[in-house]
Please model this.
Amino acid sequence: MLRIGHGYDVHRFVKGRRFILGGVEIDYEYGLLGHSDADVLLHAICDAILGALGLGDIGKHFPDTDSAYAGIDSRELLRNVITKMEAVHYRLGNLDCTIICQKPKLAPYIAKMVDLVASDCKVASGMINIKATTSEELGFTGRGEGIAAHAVVLLQRDERKSAAKRAAIIS
Model:
């Protein structure tokens, strides 16, 4: 059984915050505004996984009205989503992400992002693809006002866990 999900998120640039993207701190004059660390890429990934599972979105599970999530590391949110995925016997097949921003250039950070996301998703790095593009100076991303991210995920039924659960029920 396969399930496909798509996630999308945006955050505005602001002064006075750290810029965290894909779990990596990036040296830049602006950070992203949000209730958590505002990691737009990880939020899109969480939404893609939750969507594939039919479990709503990141706001449903980690509302910005809950002080428990104020400033939280989005890697913790992703690991929590992965736990939810595993609880219903799915595993990540592959993940393809696109980050849209004019600045800064992200190429030097992509490999580290891939490694962190793969680790948190419990898959090999080869199952994770992250790319960045500009919007040719068009729209809010082109004007440097913020960043957008898309994520598409393929989830596979984890038959090993399903078989183990069936065996436990039979015994």
